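Just scan my protein:

——
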Amino acid sequence: MNFHVGKRRSVATVLGALAVLGVGLVLAFGVRSVVADPNSGPAGSPPNPGHSWSEIGDLPGTMWHSNNDGAGSGLDADLLDGLDSTAFSTGPHTTSLPWTSITSKPAGFADDVDDDILGGLSCANGQIAKWDGSAWQCAADDTGAGGGYWTQAGLDLYPNNPNWNVGVGTTSPSHKLTITSADESPDEYALRLIGPDSLGHGARLNFGDGDYVYIEEDEDDRLYLYSPWRIALMGGNVGIGTSSPDEKLHVSGTVKAESTDARAVEGYTSSDNEWVSAIYGRNEGNGDGVYGWSQNRHGTVGVTQSSDPEDAGVWAFNDGPGPAIKAEGDGYFTGNVGVGTSSPDARLHVVAGTAYDDDGVRGEASAEDGFGVMGMATGPYGVGVYAEGPASGEALRAYSSGGRAIWATTDADYTAALLSESGGPNGWAAWFHGNVLITDRDTGATVIELGKGLDYGEGFNVSDEAGIGPGTVLVIDAENPGELAISEQAYDPKVAGVVSGANGLDSAIRLGGDQFDYTVALAGRVYCNVDASYGEVSPGDLLTTSPTPGYAMVVKDYSKAQGAILGKAMEGLGQGEQGQILILVTLQ
């Protein structure tokens, strides 16, 4: 409480001061009209007799009635209705007591200057005495224009001095409002806002001079933070769902970003570290690191403006055994695609590694009618699949463990389904490991097959298959044009050839194989049935048909052999033996 003692104060003021000093009078209200006037009382009143200061000090013994004021009001203080010690009443009085009539005033109350002495305390002009709990101290008179600390205007209540700090739970407030909680119990929380709604929600804390920035409990147990322009969280890390965030924003749970006219999530970094990404997805479970989904557009889009040809809009790598990129469904590229090269000059440009078994392109098909690699050209001079290799390597290599290694088709006239060209005099336009099969487009029947054999064979039908097998000598069937029959006579000028395939040696070139009964060697090397009963056979001997069905024999009569030569023996066969030996078919 601030206290001010000075000359020309009312007796009530003096008595109030004395009460604080321990005299025992508490005058909160009541004494209203007894005035110590230094001049005189009201006009027409007789002079009042003088009283000493000691009499004022003795007032507690004479002012108070033993019980009350006698009127049953129980008031704490009554009004003086005379100068004796009779009972008091509560009505208003106009009697004046001149200040000059009070004698024996203590030092400091005798002059007209407001720097009186209180208990030996001398305060400067503009200061007042204040009780600090143990003694009086001089301090500035900051009680405000109204003489109090607070002003109430309607429903508003505010401190009289705008420079004051207000403390709740503290005697040393550091800000305009400082609230200190005594302990951590729910009843001692520093600040609680209770709204007007049924469960206490609806409370709002506003900032600034309008209702534009605020924090509100808009629903029960739900917090709403609003700012029309910006909400910035500066300083340390922010945790959502965690009390120990280790990044600027640490969310434990699901993050959902939603936007109707802008990016839902945008990541930005200016780091020079090439391993620092604007957005980083990490999954330590069984899910995806980054997953993109779009209902009407691209699920994931990557764009780069780097001038480095090694930089890509989307870059994928895999530290595990799986692929870096895996796509399910159709793929679509508008530019060139490079595999093993950063500067592709074709729609698909593949550069293999330097290891011996590195493949540029490998196609595998497990379905019955699937294609490992399929190329299609619709232009008149287009190429479905184009392969180009170095001088010592293969431009195109195809392998199959049971199916077709290469299947080429064209629908246009005068075009090639497969075009192979050698760039040097010692190179090959095509190199095949395994048989090569050419079939009829309409029927699928074999037209030409290139195999690992040593003869040139063509497909023929026979009039009678009895006794015919690989190595059998066949002749033209005179009764069935276009068909062959088993040989049965010596020196037969109708000799046609030998059935291919004996001893596992197939034809090197086979024409029309599957659509005929047998492939017959018309030239080249083939194993043939030979009967040496008609003479010993030595390498280089001419061979012709023999009386033994399906067997050849050595030529003994050259005049009969004209036009009946089958070929030459490349192996010998002892006199009287029968078997298969390697011969060179040279029909004459």
Q: What stands out?
A: The radius of gyration is 61 Å. The longest strand covers residues 518-531.
